[in-house]
Structure formats: structure tokens, C-alpha cells
Write a structure and sequence with these properties.
4-stranded antiparallel sheet, 2 helices, globular
Amino acid sequence: MTISEICLTKSESDTALLLEGTLGHIRGKVVDIRGTAIMGCTICIRETDDISYTDENGNFTMINIVPSVYTITVECNGYSPCIFFKAPIKMGDNPGFRFVLHLFE
């Protein structure tokens, strides 16, 4: 149980737990064309303005996303942006998003 659940009334807590079970989460990695992880990239779901950043291993996570089809953009200084149109996000965990960025020319 999280601290936020402790502060909710029973009916609010039930609603929060129900919503949590219906949302999606995405995980992935951003690399360059050699497969080297890229730290500090910005991952954005355009339709919701949700943003995440890659860690030192190029990994990112985004949680509590309403299942749908979205446009995901990945941007990082020195690299051309990457856009994934019609990215399906389902209920629960959606691992395996992998974005390959090319050096900006």
C-alpha cells in the first residue's frame, strides 16, 4: 500500500486501484546505430504530453497511460529525432520499445 492510498477514503481507494489496473506502462531503450545506449533523451507521447527521459543505460519508463494508439517522439541533442506513429499501448506492461537514433547531419 502506498502513502497516497492511505490518505484516500475507502471508495476513493477502490477507484484508484481500479484505475491503476486499467492503465498501461511502457518501457524501452534508446540507442545509436552501433547499439550504444544514449543517456538524456526525451521521450514524449504527443497526444498526452507525458514525458520521460533515458537514464545512463538508455532505458526509460512511462507509467499510468490510458490504453490507446499514440505518436511517440524521441529527441536528443546531436541526433535526428525519431517518431513512432500509431504506437499501440495496451493495458498493463508494454516492454520492448527500442528506438535507434542517427547522428544529426
